[in-house]
Each structure stands twice: as structure tokens, then as C-alpha cells.
């Protein structure tokens, strides 16, 4: 069954947007009406406070309301009835194509210096994480976790179990908060959940709001309900969100300068795209394969262990993943891992699209493929891109024997 969040902050956001759209174009006599809508917005957030305690969009709305109260000199006491709905007037910023130079990252931040160095982070599948430093990890991270948390935006994912009682999890909810930035964009919240991939921000808009550089932040729908792209030119950032099967994938291209723009560096410990998953949340591929082998032997002795639906063997999972991922890199290994743990063929597509996003977003084409390193390889000795090196048969046999011996111990 689809997981439905009891937090109704998106409803509060949309009601406020509908009530106040275009009010900034009106005269000072309309300020009381705006304050009425703002008080109604605050009242709505208080009603959903209990169910929204861990929701980034909720906390963003609460802080935003306080700021707007001060900016418009609104009293917290007064009427809260909703004013009449408005329509956007002609020439609104939704249609503007001009933007000040400061709202174009490459033109403003690096006008007199070298081109910025871009980095990539991605999260997909059960879930697998590729960090900004090209570290690849498979993690548990059940529940809500911050992917990105810097001076310009916050990204939080929520991972839920794929099967009841299973340790396999996948991303069921994604929240992205773009913070208000100078004359470019207002604060904007994007939120996606299973079976709901909107092509607009939570307030119904598709760009950065009412500031002069609003179009330096835009949402584009690539495939309805399956693939959206967010361009944040004012910070040189591109974000791709997909729904593959029932779950979400995330990929981002971001300049190093933006990645590292954090005021409190002590709080970066759980910033997954930068620091990776905590050790106690990481899953070892090799240990998992050993466990799968042991489980396979147990199944052959008797039907004591239940198989997941559409169960794959290691051989059938490998064959299936090779259909879309011919290079046996970590994306291929992730695909095999996910088919074995979930039995859901959509996870093969998630790995495939994750690699397609890497090809589009990664700035170093020599680092598209990543390969599993072992303790016998010196740091940095990954196989060359696109052409994994076959290991000598004797070395493989010895490794397998050693793994089996360790398993017996």
C-alpha cells in the first residue's frame, strides 16, 4: 500500500499561495488582506504541527511566516478568514526571461577566475549513494536523512522498507528547500512522494517566485509523473528526480564552492552527499554475497527459508542486469544486489537511470564508472573506465576459498 504522510503542510502552502498570488502588485490598502491570509497560514501550520515535527517543509514554512509577519508589519492577532482568490496579473515574473547577472552562477561568482569545478551526488535503489567525492556506498538509512545541507539548499530523503520485515529500504519521500537568495529567488520547497512526482513547487509555482531573477530557478517536467529536472542557475546547480517503479531516485550536479558553503562545519557529520553514510549504516557487498551463498545452500537442503516474490538467483539477476548495464561496475553490482534483496525488476531500471544521470551530470567523463576495491588493491587502483580488468582465475579461486574459510570460522 502507498504510504500517505499525515503531515498536511503542502495543503497549508497551497492555500496561502492561492489566497495571496499577485498581492505584491497591489497598493498598500491591500496589506491588511495579506496579513489576514498570513494569519490563516500560521493557524493552518499550528493545526498540523504535531504530525509535521520531522518535516523540513513544515519548519521552513514556520520560519517563513515569522519573516513575512515582520516584513509586512502584520499583527499575530486578528481575523484569519481567507481572502478572495486572485489571479496572476499580466507580466508576472512567471513569464520573465531576464535575470540580473548575479543570478547566473558562472557569470557572477567566477567572472574573473577559472571555471568552477562541478561535483555529482546520486541516491537510488536499495539505497545506493555516490557522494560528491565519488565514494560509492550501499546503506540502510531507514527513516529521514539529510542528503545536502548548505547555505543555499537542504535536501532530505525518507527511506522505507521495501518488504515487511526486510532490511532493504528505498526512497519514498524527497524534500528540497531552496533558500531565499538576494534578488534572485524566494524560498521554494519541492516535495515528492511515492506515486506523486509534481512538476511544480509546493506553492504551485514553477520558478523562483516574484523577484527579478525568478527564472534562475525553474522546474521542467521531462516525463509526466516519472522525471523532473530543476535548474538553479543562481547556484550553478542541476537536480534530477525520477520515480522508477514506486520509489524515487535523486541526482545533482553542483559546484564545489556551493557544496562546501556551510556555516557550521561541525554539523556536516550527517550530510550524506558530502560525508557518506555512517559506518553502522553501511552494507558490505562481499559480506552480502557470502550470506546469499549460505542461504542458497540452506534452501537446497530444505524449504526452511522463504524466498522473496519473483526471487532471483545470483545467475538470473546477473543476466537481467546485463541487459541494461553491460559494464560490470558498481552500478551493475548494485542492480544485482537489489534484485536479490527485493525481487523487484524496477530496481534494475533505477540503477540504469542513475547511471544515465551520471553521464549527463558528472563533469569528469573518465570517472563515470566506479569499481569495487578490495584490500589487495592499493588506493586509487580502480579498473579503468569502461573496461573492467578480468582477475586471474587462480587469484579468484584463492579469494573464494579464503572467503569460504572465513565463513566457516
From TrEMBL:
UniProtKB keywords: Autocatalytic cleavage, Cell membrane, Disulfide bond, Glycoprotein, GPI-anchor, Lipoprotein, Membrane, Signal
Compartments in which it is found: Cell membrane
GO cellular component, one term: plasma membrane
InterPro entries named in the record: RGM (IPR040287), RGM_C (IPR009496), RGM_N (IPR010536)
Mode of membrane association: Lipid-anchor; GPI-anchor
Family of this protein: Belongs to the repulsive guidance molecule (RGM) family.
Protein name: RGMA protein
Organism: Penelope pileata
Lineage of the organism: Eukaryota, Metazoa, Chordata, Craniata, Vertebrata
Amino acid at each position: 500500500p502507498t504510504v500517505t504522510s499525515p503531515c498536511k503542510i503542502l495543503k497549508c502552502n497551497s492555500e496561502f499561495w492561492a489566497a495571496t498570488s499577485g498581492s505584491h502588485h497591489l497598493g498598500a490598502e491591500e496589506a491588511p488582506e495579506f496579513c489576514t491570509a498570513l494569519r490563516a497560514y500560521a493557524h493552518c501550520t499550528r493545526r498540523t504541527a504535531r504530525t509535521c515535527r520531522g518535516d523540513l517543509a513544515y519548519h521552513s514554512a514556520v520560519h517563513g511566516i515569522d519573516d513575512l509577519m515582520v516584513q509586512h508589519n502584520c499583527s499575530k492577532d486578528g481575523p484569519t478568514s481567507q481572502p478572495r482568490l486572485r489571479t496572476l496579473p499580466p507580466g508576472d515574473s512567471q513569464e520573465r526571461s531576464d535575470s540580473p547577472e548575479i543570478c547566473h552562477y558562472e557569470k557572477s561568482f567566477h567572472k574573473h577566475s577559472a571555471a568552477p569545478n562541478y561535483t555529482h551526488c546520486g541516491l537510488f535503489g536499495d539505497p545506493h549513494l555516490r557522494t560528491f567525492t565519488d565514494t560509492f556506498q550501499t546503506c540502510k538509512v531507514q527513516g529521514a536523512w539529510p542528503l545536502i545541507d548548505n547555505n543555499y539548499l537542504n535536501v532530505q530523503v525518507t527511506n522505507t522498507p521495501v518488504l515487511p520485515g526486510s532490511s532493504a529500504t528505498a526512497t519514498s519521500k524527497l524534500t528540497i528547500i531552496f533558500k531565499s537568495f538576494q534578488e534572485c529567488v524566494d524560498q521554494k520547497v519541492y516535495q515528492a512522494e511515492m506515486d506523486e512526482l509534481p512538476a511544480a513547487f509546493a506553492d504551485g509555482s514553477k520558478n523562483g517566485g516574484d523577484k527579478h531573477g525568478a527564472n534562475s530557478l525553474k522546474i521542467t517536467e521531462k516525463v509526466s509523473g516519472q522525471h523532473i529536472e530543476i535548474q538553479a542557475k543562481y547556484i550553478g546547480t542541476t537536480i534530477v528526480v525520477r520515480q522508477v517503479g514506486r520509489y524515487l531516485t535523486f541526482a545533482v550536479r553542483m559546484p564545489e564552492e556551493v557544496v562546501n558553503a556551510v556555516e557550521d562545519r561541525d554539523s556536516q557529520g550527517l550530510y550524506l552527499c558530502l560525508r557518506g553514510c555512517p559506518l553502522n549504516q553501511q552494507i558490505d557487498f562481499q559480506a552480502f554475497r557470502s550470506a546469499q551463498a549460505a542461504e542458497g545452500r540452506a534452501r537446497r537442503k530444505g524449504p526452511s527459508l522463504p524466498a522473496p516474490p519473483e526471487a532471483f538467483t545470483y545467475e538470473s539477476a546477473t543476466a537481467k542486469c546485463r541487459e541494461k548495464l553491460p559494464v560490470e561496475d558498481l552500478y551493475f553490482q548494485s542492480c544485482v544486489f537489489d534484485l536479490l534483496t527485493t525481487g523487484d525488476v524496477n530496481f534494475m531500471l533505477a540503477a540504469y537511470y542513475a547511471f544515465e544521470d551520471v553521464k549527463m551530470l558528472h563533469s569528469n567523463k573518465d570517472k563515470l564508472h566506479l569499481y569495487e576495491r578490495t584490500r589487495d588493491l592499493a588506493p586509487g587502483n580502480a579498473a579503468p573506465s569502461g573496461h573492467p580488468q578480468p582477475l586471474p582465475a587462480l587469484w579468484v579461486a584463492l579469494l573464494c576459498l579464503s572467503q569460504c574459510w572465513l565463513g566457516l570460522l
